[in-house]
Amino acid sequence: MDRIEFYKHDLGDAELSSVKEVIGSLFLTLGPRVAAFERALGHFLGQERVVGVSSCTMGLVMALEALGVGAGDEVITTPMTFIATSNAVLLQGAVPVFVDVDPKTGLIDPDAVEAAITPRTRAVIAVHLYGQLADMPALRSICDRRKLSLVEDAAHVIEAERAGVRVAELGDATVFSFYATKPMTSGDGGAIVVRDAVLFDRLRRLRNHGVSKDAASRHGGSYVHWDMVELGYKAAMTDLEAALLIPQIEHVSRRRDRRQAIVQRYERALGGRTDVDLLSWSGRSSHHLFTVLVPARLRDRVLEGLAARGIGAAVNYRAIHTLTYYKERFGYARDAFPVAADIGERTISLPLYTQLLDRDVDRVVAALDETLSALR
Ligand SMILES: Cc1ncc(COP(=O)(O)O)c(C=O)c1O
Q1: pTM value?
Q2: Rounded to the nearest whole angstrom, what is the distance from the C-alpha of residue 224 to the centroid of ligand 1?
């Protein structure tokens, strides 16, 4: 029987011809396709200011810098995320301050955020884990009261809403990822959405070495000098990436709906089991990942059992404070953030993408069932 992969992209003819057009054109980077993608994504999100960048990681680094986060500042975030979130804080010379997550959702707990604020706190990064929005109204109100910036790590989200609030609606900067396993992908790539015009201009410079004018905007008449006005990065989106992304936007909602149907099929099949716990979600989740929690002592053997039965699976994520670098640098004990540690020891992500058929989902469930029964 064929292996069921953990993830398969959905790129096809529309993306191929879109990329071909770029290859036949003048600009391969920071040209008209990047601008067209920024407009199209902004239109989809109901936002005006979108900056195409090379990755969500670099987007987070630049967003923090533009928001004034620097050496010695503290940034509060969750340990139940990919390392990119807190690495971006470290790359700015700032200190990530972790707070624990809600055991029902795995999302950052706003009360814990409030309790962790010190005079050095400068910003909060909310992570929309697995596609479910964090409690943005609560976080926004804390950040407004305590004069902190609020960043949304939206690497798992394109379309999402919770209690009437959409992604990118309340954050000062919201950063998206188009990495290879994301629902909308260009292999690598990202975008930052901001609501403030000054922040927007700053981010457009920061992605291009801090240069005042990019090549496309200088093209045409006689030579126009560019100037470097601040120290920036080499982190812009290319037109090849933008060309891959543009045709995918119109399918975002339909593909999200299909992933939700798959999640619901998994939930119906697994919901009654005593040896599997499921996290809860509400509103309109992007459903980027579907995770099950199994007993910690069995987790790695369940992963082996799934692999032996031809099922791709992954771990998203072992809690960041339990990883070697963070443990050694900051001296964290496992129980500093026990809920995140527990999820990290028990979680398994199952296949979730539009090309998965109902019978594939049933095969994954059967493989999980067989594996757990064999280990009982
Ligand atoms: C929660 C989260 N934040 C940030 C990132 C970083 O995204 P990128 O690979 O585009 O830098 C990822 C990527 O997997 C992620 O899952």
Answers
A1: 0.97
A2: 37
